Amino acid sequence: MKMQAFLLAAALTAACAPARAQETAGKIAFVSTERVLRDSVPALRAQRKLEAEFKKRDDELSRTADQLKRMQEDLDKNSMTMSEAQRRTKEREFGDLNRDFQRKQREFREDINQRRNEELAQVVEQANRVIRQIAEQEKFDIIFQEMPAYVSPRIDITDKVIKALEGKPPAK
To answer: Whole-structure pTM over 0.70, yes or no?
Structure first.
């Protein structure tokens, strides 16, 4: 009798466990920050802004690189016919221009990286606000942003976030 009561209690507990697990299971989602920073309208706008902001310096660096290439070709082609003094002068000019080019190129990379980080930080901040709004509206318990080993498309809300960043209301 005690054994039957125990088995009955165990069976009832097992039968109710899935229902309880469903009640306590939270609603989860995932957002690919990489896709948001690559595909969203604010991210694309920031990229165009950076390109416009740094175009003049980029063009200047390209012209200097072309000038260096022509100087190197001239040295290679004509060094045998130049006097020693001419060759040294040309090599010194090439070296000076090359050092200046390397310095400007390094500064350019540092400046563009700093500005990119500033612009993308604004996009991330905006995306985080949208993610919080979606979480509150749709009653999510947790939304992951780091890339796990696998994400079911069923819980990926990246497209909703991107659409919301475009100013379109997210589809439910």
So the answer is: no
